[in-house]
Every structure is written in C-alpha cells, then in structure tokens.
UniProtKB/TrEMBL annotation:
Residues 387-402, 523-546 have a biased composition (Low complexity). Keywords: Nucleus, Transcription, Transcription regulation. GO terms for molecular function: DNA-binding transcription factor activity, RNA polymerase II-specific; RNA polymerase II cis-regulatory region sequence-specific DNA binding; zinc ion binding. This is Xylanolytic transcriptional activator regulatory domain-containing protein. Residues 387-406, 523-549 are annotated as: Disordered. One of its GO terms (cellular component) is nucleus. The keyword Transcription applies. Pfam families: Fungal_trans (PF04082). One of its GO terms (biological process) is DNA-templated transcription. It comes from Aspergillus avenaceus. The lineage of its organism: Eukaryota, Fungi, Dikarya, Ascomycota, Pezizomycotina. CDD domains: fungal_TF_MHR. Residues 217-291 form the Xylanolytic transcriptional activator regulatory domain. InterPro entries: Fungal_SecMet_Regulators, XnlR_reg_dom.
Length: 625
C-alpha cells in the first residue's frame, strides 16, 4: 500500500485546515484582511480553538475550505493584536515626526545603552559591518565633523539599531519613537536601491518581529528581497569593480543574512518565500555563525518542499523522509560547533556568545519539532476518533463499515511523536536555562514564539491523550514561568494569555497562578547599562543563574490543588532523555506497518498535516462567534 495510490473515501466528512484568514477594521474606512498559511502559529491556535468549542455547536453537512475564518479563535485567545500587528499602547508625542534624523531628541547616554544592547544581541543576525562602524556612526550623529555630509542611510540604519536595542531595556518605549522617525525619513526615498537600503529593510523586519508584528516583518522582508534582487546581490560582484575584501564580505553577509531570515520567517508564517537557491550564485559568507544559519535554512527549505509541499498517501513514507531530514540537520553539527566553539546543549554562555548559542538552539529544535509534528497530529486524530467510536457504536457501524484500520499505534509512530514532544521540551529547557543565566537572552521578545509553539504542541497531546497531566503540565508551567520572567507587553503578554486560556478551558485546575508581571520581572531584571559579558565574571553569573533558578523555578509546585511539580530537566520528557532527539531510532526496516488514507478511512492528504495546521479531529462544525 505504501507505494500505491491510495483511494479516497468520499464518505468521510472530516475536515482539516490549511490556513486561516481574518478581517480587522482599523477604522470605518480602513479594512485589513490578512492570511496566514498552515505553518503559522495562528493556524495551530485556530485548530485548538475548534477542538475546544466543537461540542458547543451542531455539525454542519458541508465541508470547510482550505482557508478558514479565524476571528473567533483569535478573539478567544486575545491574539488579535499579534495577528494584525496593531499597536498595543499609545506612544510618546515624539512619534511620527518627520524631518532630518540628525536632529536628535534622544540623550546620548541612552543611545549608548541601546547601541550596546543591540551589538550584544540581535547584531549577531545582521553582521554586515563591524561593531566599530556602528559606534563611529553614533559618534558622528552626536558630534558631526565640521563640513561633513550627512549619510541618511547610515543614520537610518543606526536609528533602527538603537530602536531594537531599546526593547531589551526599561526604556523600551523609545523603540517605536525611533522607528517611526526612520519611516518618516525613509518613506520619500523608498524607490532607492543599494546595499544600504537592503540592510535597512532587513533591520526593520527584525525590529517588527521583536515587537510582535509578524505581518509587518514579512512586508519589510519582501522589500529587502526585491531590492536585493534589483541590486544583483544574489550574484557575485563584477571583478572589474575591484571591491575591497571587506566590501565583498559585506555584500555576502548581507545577502545570506537576508536568505536565512526570509526562509525561516516565511516558513514561520506559512507563506511562500521569494528567494530560492537556484537563482543564487554568490559565494557563502566567511562568518561562521551566519554560515551555520544558512545551512540550517537549507534544511528548512527542504522540509517545506519535500514534507509539506508534496502529496503523501503513506505516513510511513513521511516517517522515512523525516528521518532523512534529521540526518541532513545533524550533518551540520560541526558548523554549529565551529560557530560557537561549543555545542548548543552545553551550559548556557554569557553575553553575545550566549545569544548566538540560543538562536542556533531554538532554530535547531524547532526544526525537529516541525518535522515530527505531523505524526503527533495523526496520532491525536486517531486517538480521538477511536474514543468517539467506542462511545457511539452505532455511529461507528454507519461510518466505518469497510475500514480495515490497525487497532494499535505502531511503534515507529509513537517514536515520531516522542521526538516532536521531546523537541518541544528541549526548547523550553534550553530557553529556561538561558533566561536564567543571561539577561540578553531573556529580553529577546521573539523567544515568546518558540515557547508558545512548544507549549501548544504539548497541550495538543495533553488534549487527546489519557492521564497525561502529570507528565505534560510541568513543561507547560515551566514555559509560562519563563515567559513571565520577561518584560510585560506583547508579544509576551498575548502568548501567556493564550496558553492560560487553553489550560482554563481544559480544566480550571490546570490554570497556572502566575505572579504579577511587575513583581516577577522587576525582581529579575536590572536596567542594562553595559555589556553583560564584560561586567560579570563566569563564577558570578553561575551564582546569579542559580539564585534566579531557585526563585523562578522552585522545587515545590505553586499549584498544590493538583500537585504538579516542575519538570526534571535531567530525566527529560516522560523519563526519556532529551539528549538524543535528533538521532534516528527504529523504523528502517521494510516490514513496518504502513498507514494510508484508505486504511484510516480519511479524506485528506497526509501532507496537509503540516506544522501548525492542526486539522480538526472532529466532523465539520460551525465555530461559534
């Protein structure tokens, strides 16, 4: 059966969800309508929403389409602001003023703090020029040389860097003020194409990601890609130009930094990419960290194409493909080691190195999670359908008369699900440890996405398994406490609220009594005034990490009514070690039980079980408003 074309079962009325859309009225005359594909976080949340409310509404006979309206779900989870990227608070009166960016209103002392924060953190993703170049630009901005001509692009790049750095400090409200100043300056010059305009658009995308505005990030990335192609950055510079080696590397690092982020972020949102390697002939960068990200991006691109962009009738074929992708990902471990000088699972490092370690770790384990999540979805549907049929024998007889499905879950399928869940737990574990040891890592807002996605994968399994609260809830609580150690505001606030809402819907006892944000956050974070790697010794950092760990992750549960302890990071998930997640186990033999469409009596393509598109395990239902 694995190699043949399985037949469709026209009588099956089960539906799945490929993507979601929603509409938002900014004003009576301004309607915003956005679409997110099956790999997006929003598709996952919509499917969990449908599972939660499915018993509250009668079934409808017609099948749902590939794109579903998600407004009710995002409102239940209070996620509308993230979905549409709308502002969450009113900013200072300085926002939106145009004019010369050199007319500064930001005290230099704060500017130096913001720049230091940026250079120690997200600069690692955009290393197209040296740190000293940013420092010289800052000095020139505040103490311009007599007669020197202002460079508008250098100033705009600097201001976005300052805006990004501000988000990790108590002065984060400066971020949008600086960002809007750049937009006002940059707007009239939007058609200009050169290396600096590509760099600026890429930086603006990173800023909007940190602010929880994914659609805006996507649009800025699109601008960066179009300008990069227009400038020919995907090709090597002509030798006749006689560019310096520094200029050549700047060009390469700019393009490949863009390639990584565009590949990853489009996958994150479930939207097509604009850059493909078949169009690229520029050499790889010499920067080892960017090089490691590029090779991981190639695995992600393969995952998107072969696992989720192809038709699959055989789940066993998908299992073997997933194992091949894991082999591919594991083959780049030497590049990761070279980039860090350490492994991604080693003790969390301090300062900028710790930021790089966490970036590679989150991308690595999230890729594993996405690779094996389709199997988790499959098993969840199987479990739910089996339970439903056992409760209603009459319905089973009517709908599944000729279905010859297995009665037990194959070992290889359970192994695949364990890999997905273990990768989710490893993400939570590593971010917990890194947050405890490094405040630069703790204040990167995008980590809320990884923690939320990992939590919802565990929640999905909790919803469809039996007696799993003792093994699953501790990891969800650990993610919630890690999130609560960060500064309040979106995207962190919305992620916390959404997870808590699902737990409360499943059982009021499951809700976690979080500490108030300000009490929790202020007790952990001090304003960042200098590079952490310079201001703390290794021994001091370890003591601080231990103190933080004891305060945020106490040995006793804060919810004694259900007696759920914190997870044992040494033992791992369900008493299985987290150290060998990426390795392949059993399942290479040819005599394994396959699962096909006709076996299960389902009418959908296995390839639609992709990533966060957690298709409904119920017959089509009208989601209540």
């Amino acid at each position: 059966m694995a190699g043949g074309q399985a037949r469709r079962n026209p009588s099956a009325s089960y539906t799945f969800n490929n993507s979601v859309t929603a509409t938002h009225m900014e004003s009576p005359s301004c309607k915003v309508q956005l679409y997110y594909g099956s790999t997006s976080h929003f598709a996952l949340m919509h499917e969990i929403y449908r599972d939660l409310v499915s018993n509250q509404a009668p079934p409808r006979p017609e099948k749902l389409g590939e794109v579903e309206e998600a407004s009710a779900g995002i409102d239940m989870f209070s996620f509308r602001r993230i979905f549409f990227g709308t502002p969450d608070e009113t900013q200072d009166c300085g926002r939106g003023r145009g004019g010369d960016p050199s007319v500064m209103f930001l005290p230099r002392e704060l500017a130096e703090v913001f720049l230091g924060r940026f250079l120690d953190s997200l600069y690692n993703l955009v290393q197209f020029c040296g740190r000293d170049s940013f420092r010289r630009a800052l000095d020139q901005l505040y103490r311009p040389s007599p007669g020197a001509k202002s460079d508008v692009w250098t100033q705009c790049i600097l201001l976005v860097a300052l805006a990004t750095g501000s988000l990790g400090t108590e002065h984060y409200r400066w971020g949008d003020v600086l960002f809007d100043r750049v937009r006002a300056t940059y707007g009239p010059l939007d058609d200009v194409v050169n290396l600096h305009t590509v760099q600026l658009s890429l930086l603006m995308a990173h800023y909007q990601t940190e602010q929880g505005r994914p659609n805006s990030s996507f649009l800025h990335l699109g601008t960066a890609v179009r300008k990069a192609l227009s400038a020919g950055l995907h090709k090597e510079a002509p030798k006749q130009t006689k560019d310096s080696e520094e200029s050549i590397q700047e060009r390469r690092v700019t393009f490949w930094s863009l390639y990584f982020y565009e590949t990853w972020f489009c996958f994150h949102l479930g939207r097509p990419t604009s850059l493909t390697l078949r169009d690229v002939s520029i050499e790889l960068p010499g920067n080892p960290f960017i090089l490691a990200l590029v090779h991981m991006s190639k695995v992600i691109a393969r995952l998107a194409d072969e696992m989720f962009g192809q038709h699959h009738d055989s789940l066993l074929h998908m299992w073997r493909l997933a194992r091949s992708i894991m082999d591919d990902l594991g083959s780049h471990s030497a590049l990761i080691q070279q980039a860090l000088g350490k492994g991604i699972d080693d003790r969390p490092q301090q300062g900028s190195l710790g930021v790089c370690q966490t970036i590679l770790s989150t991308i690595y384990y999230h890729t594993i999670l996405l690779t094996f999540r389709p199997f988790l979805i499959f098993r969840g549907r199987w479990q739910q359908e089996s339970e439903s049929n056992s409760q209603n024998q009459t319905q089973t007889q009517n709908t599944n008369t000729n279905i010859n499905r297995p009665t037990e879950v194959p070992t290889w399928l359970n192994e695949a699900c364990t890999k997905a869940l273990s990768a989710a737990c490893k993400t939570i574990h590593n971010l917990h440890e890194a947050h405890s040891a490094n405040d630069l890592v703790r204040e990167l807002r995008y980590h809320g996405y990884f923690l939320g996605s990992a939590s919802f994968a565990i929640i999905y399994d909790l919803m469809h398994g039996k007696n799993l609260s003792s093994t699953h809830l501790p990891w969800i609580y650990a993610a919630l406490q890690t999130l609560s150690s960060m500064r309040e505001g979106d995207p962190i606030k919305s992620t916390l609220s959404a997870i808590q809402t699902v737990l409360r819907k499943l059982s009021p006892e499951y809700e976690w009594p979080l500490l108030p944000f300000q009490q929790n956050y202020q007790s952990q974070v001090q304003p960042h005034t200098q590079s952490q790697s310079q201001s703390q010794s290794q021994s001091q950092s370890q003591v601080q990490a231990q103190d933080h760990n004891e305060q945020i992750y106490p040995t006793q549960s804060h919810n004694p009514s259900i007696g759920i302890p914190y997870p044992n990071f040494q033992i791992g998930f369900q008493d299985q070690s987290l150290q060998s997640i990426g390795s392949v186990g059993s399942g290479s033999g040819e005599d394994l039980l396959d699962l096909t469409l006709s076996d299960m009596g389902w009418d959908f393509d296995f390839s639609t079980m992709d990533l966060e598109a957690f298709f409904s395990i119920y017959p089509g239902v009208e989601t209540p408003s």
